[in-house]
Each structure stands twice: as C-alpha cells, then as structure tokens.
Amino acid sequence: MSRPSFIRTRFNSFRFAFNGLAAVFRSEPNMHLHVLASLVVLVMAYRFEVTRVEWCLLILCIGMVWVAEVFNTSIETLTDLVSPEHNILAGKTKDLAAGAVLMAAITAVAVGLFIFIPYWVEYVNTEL
User: Fold this and answer.
1) Predicted confidence band at 128 (pLDDT cuts at 50, 70, 90)?
2) Measuring CA to CA, how many Å separate 8 from each of 17, 18, 20?
C-alpha cells in the first residue's frame, strides 16, 4: 500500500475543514444569525464606502466571531461526547465557550459602531 501523495493529503485536509464548516452552518442556528449580521455589515460597508483599514477591521471582526462560533460548537460537541450525563464541569465548559462567542460578538459590535456611527451621522445630516 502506497502512502498518499502530498497533494492528496492537502486536498483531504481542506475537504475535512470544509465539512466542518458545513456542519456548523447546518447545525447551529446562531451561525445563521452571524451570517445574516455579516451580510448586513458588508452591505453597509459597501454602501458607505468605508476605508481600506475599516474594511480590514470589519472583516477581521466577522472572522473572529465566526471562528469563535466554530470553536464553541467544537467544544460543545466534544463535551457532549466525553460527558453525556449532567456534569457541573461540563456545563461550565460549555458556558465558557459560549461566553467566548459573546465576547467576540460584543467586540465586533463595538468596532462596528465606532466605524459606522460617523457614516450614519453624516448620512442623516445630509438627508435632513
């Protein structure tokens, strides 16, 4: 039996990673909210013609929230596997992972407000 080629193993790695992302999108309702919020942010960024640095910050925040949600789902799945019965530490582990997603989301909202409030103020002032 021959060893898989370098290209084959890289292809499989990407395939497994995309399978993981697909699983999160299918199984996590919160991920659907993150996607919707991301689309709203990207449309506003396009509409207000934000700067290149602001684009980078917004994309970084979107990625941070999505990564936090993937890690949260991973931690919750592993916790359910190793501790299917009620366990205080398992519950704490899940709460901590969910708290990380919340912190990422709060941080992203704060960055979004810092970026978008001046654009909203300018838009409202020019419309009046």
Assistant:
1) confident
2) 14, 15, 18
pLDDT in tens, 7-34: 889 999 999 999 999 999 999 999 999 9
CB-based contact 50:75 (threshold 8 Å): no
Catalytic residue among 69, 76, 122, 127: 69
Distances in Å between the alpha carbon of 38 and those of 24, 44, 61, 66, 115? 16, 10, 9, 9, 14
Active site residue 122: no
> Options 3.30.160.670, 3.20.20.70, 2.60.120.10, 1.10.287.3610; which CATH number does 29-127 get?
1.10.287.3610
> Residue ranges per domain, the chain?
29-127
**Cβ atoms 60, 68 nearer than 8 A:** no
